[in-house]
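Standup notes
- DV: blocked on the single-chain target, sequence here:
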Amino acid sequence: MILDTLLNWTKYPWTGTRFPAAFEYLQHFDVKSPDGTYHIDGDNVFCMVQSYETTPLEGHEFEAHQDYADIQYLVSGQESIFWAPTPQLTVTKPYKPDIAFYSLIPAPTELVLAPGQFCVLFPQDAHVPCVMHTAPSTVRKAVIKVRL
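- DV (later): unblocked, structure below
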């Protein structure tokens, strides 16, 4: 798991060309893009633009992916994403097709995203997105899926 600002994406030793393509897309991201899916490199790299209201942690489950890493980039608002390593969790719904769900654990690690920040979540990184930090917030976010 990585948490940083978009200004620092080049400081990481990304393997292959898919991560650089994703971050280059974010550097030129049009914040006025309507919600929806935008293909950067077919099904290998694509962006899902989302707008929603954050909600309390209660009622959520952890999720994790096998085939894709998530780059979650906050455009506006504030959001908490809770994180835990998958080996510590109990599966509630097994992978189908690229997402599994896990039960919440006491005191998961909270990542607080503000505009201009991103987090990268790999297959071992279970996460609960869309959670309010201190109060509900209207969020605009770009989630880029990068095939591993």
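- Follow-up: The chain has a mean pLDDT of 96.
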